[in-house]
Amino acid sequence: MTGLAMHIFLTFLLSISVLPSIAQSTIYVDVDATGGNDGTSWTDAFVHLQDALTEAETGDQIWIAEGAHTPDAGIGFTPGDTGIRFEVKGSVKVYGGFAGGEASLLDRPSPLLETVLSGDLNGDDLENQIPDRSAPEYQDNSLRLLLVYEGTEEEPTILDGVTIRGATSHAVAALGPCQFREVTIEVNVGDLIGSSINCVFDTLKFRYNRAEDSQSGAFQISQSTIKNSTFEYNEANDGGALQVWGSESDSVFVSKSTFHSNHAGDGGAIVNSGGAHLVVVSTKFIANEARCAGGAIAMDENGSLTSINNVYAFNHSLNQTSECGPLADGGALWVYKSSLHDFNSTFVSNSSNAQGDHVSLLDSEGVMSNVILQGISQESEDIKLISSTMEIANILHDETLDPAITVSGNQILETGVFNDPAGPDGVIGTVDDQFTLQPSSGAIDAGDAFLLPADLADIDNDGDRQEPSPLDINGQPRVQVGNVDLGAYESSTSTSTDSEPRHSHCIQAYPNPFSGSLNLKTYFARGSSAKILDVLGRIVRIIDFEAGAQQSTIDTSGMTPGLYLVSLDGYPACSIKVIRR
Fold first, then answer.
1. Which of 16, 97, 332, 402 is 20 to 30 A off residue 290, Cα-Cα?
2. Does 180 lie in the same domain as 104?
3. Alpha helices of 113-243 — where are they, by DSSP H?
4. Alpha-carbon gap, residue 403 to 398, rounded angstroms
5. CATH number, domain containing residue 534
6. What's the structural domain count of the chain?
7. Cis bond leading into 511, ω under 30°?
8. Partners of 580 in the beta sheet?
9. For the segment 447-483, what is each residue's pLDDT rounded down to a tens digit?
């Protein structure tokens, strides 16, 4: 989509006025209903979704039972009309997945039953494969399938438990505030598949889609949040799964998600082409491919990427066509006139036919910390700098680094650091690949907790986005005994040779992080005292447990925010790091 077309599209959406609220009610839809067909109950449910959408007003809920609905069916609609789409009014809440007969949303089956908003008007589409828009099966499909109007912050428009399938121009357009939950968008083809601004997508499945516009990604998003989602087997010219757009003041958050086997020109999985701040946390990028640059993510001019606790594995940039240019590369990340800040990520067996098997920077600045780089060949540098700078603090790698990279802290040369890289299926390059650390790996305790970034995506859902990143990619506590590990996974193994029990078997501190009082609990009778030390090793508190007691509450007033070490006297290995907010 060109910049002009995107401007026209957003102007159109923003010009739409939402109807005032008249009443709030539940409207029922069931293709098998045989009653009065007025939507007032499961017995008298509408049999066509369009009739319910026509009836709905702001604040209403629409409950849809299992089945497929096409936009050309309903009162006032013409069967076979490919120009008709579903339109959800602002602050209306659409819920699918029902069996029919439920009295509450909590009564829906688990897993939800399939409720399909289908553009396949003749019922002849192929399943589970990327569609060919020129094929006979798709000539009679709906062009545009769904338009979601803006809700409010207090009452967003909601789409929950439905599948969107079979559009041949633009499957979904959504203007927030809106929420998509347990929604599947699959087997669509068009100039672009989806576009959204100011929406939240939770447990989205986006698969088997192809965007064919020369300037569009498969799903264009701005000022939005994506979490717990899966993107696989999608294709686009740029941004095989997502195209991030917006100004430098806009942010897009992606967390706890998976991008697998997506393909594009630039950015096999994601392209940031509008200058926005892209934050990606605890996410896997596996076997994505770019014809030109950025097998996983491509950053275009004026953007910024913050990458935390991610896995980039078996992604590839081909640089194989004349459109690519001489400087297109970056097996996992390609950063052009932008900035990269990466923390505790794991890069494994990414490759480029040109330069930079893992990362390539062109006219950019990069900072990485607590990182693991493991390659598959010596033919290309792991990190390629072209008129760029890169600083790395604490790294485990298996190839020589570009001497232009500034490295501080631990620099470890090591191979074979992972427990089970092929995962349970025994096949590398699939979504179950695991890159947890072997107990003997030098990556354990080789990181630095002071380098942990803020929890920008609120990965632990506690509402605190300023605390240090608290969890690894598996949801395990990042700050445990000793220093943090390198890479995306935190190990419970310590490099200490002490035989004493550690962490929760030795001493507990809670809450952690803390802002007021700090509670300490020990399990050792002879641990009669403990010390709290600051980062310079200075004692800031001495705690004496009362006779026979193994728990104490400490007043921490006067302690400045930061990282501290609590050490139990008599047990050198028994210590825990705590963070004061």
1. 402
2. yes
3. none
4. 15
5. 2.60.40.1930
6. 3
7. yes
8. 514, 562
9. 988 788 889 999 999 998 888 899 999 999 998 866 8
CB atoms within 10 A of CB 49: 27
Residue 310 sits at φ, ψ, to 5 deg, of -105, 160
385 and 476, same structural domain?
A: yes
d(CA 435, CA 473): 10
Neighbours of 90 (CB within 10 A): 23
Bond preceding residue 513 cis, omega within 30 of 0? yes
Coil/strand/helix, residue 15: coil
Residue 23 lies in a domain: yes
Angle at 489 between CA 488 and CA 495, to 5 degrees: 125
Q: 116: which strand partners?
A: 68, 163
**Looking at the predicted structure, is the pLDDT value of residue 50 above 70?**
yes
Rounded Cα distance, 457 and 128, in Å: 32
- Which tokens is 260 given? 């697998």
- The winner for highest mean pLDDT among 9-23, 40-54, 366-380, 430-444 is 40-54
* pTM over cut 0.90: no
In-domain check, residue 260: yes
Q: Residue 103: is it exposed, middle or buried by C-beta count within 10 angstroms (0-12/13-18/19+)?
A: exposed
User: 257: which 2 tokens?
Assistant: 């998600």
Tokens (6 digits) for 564:
């501290």
- Based on the domain organization, do 138 and 265 belong to the same domain? no
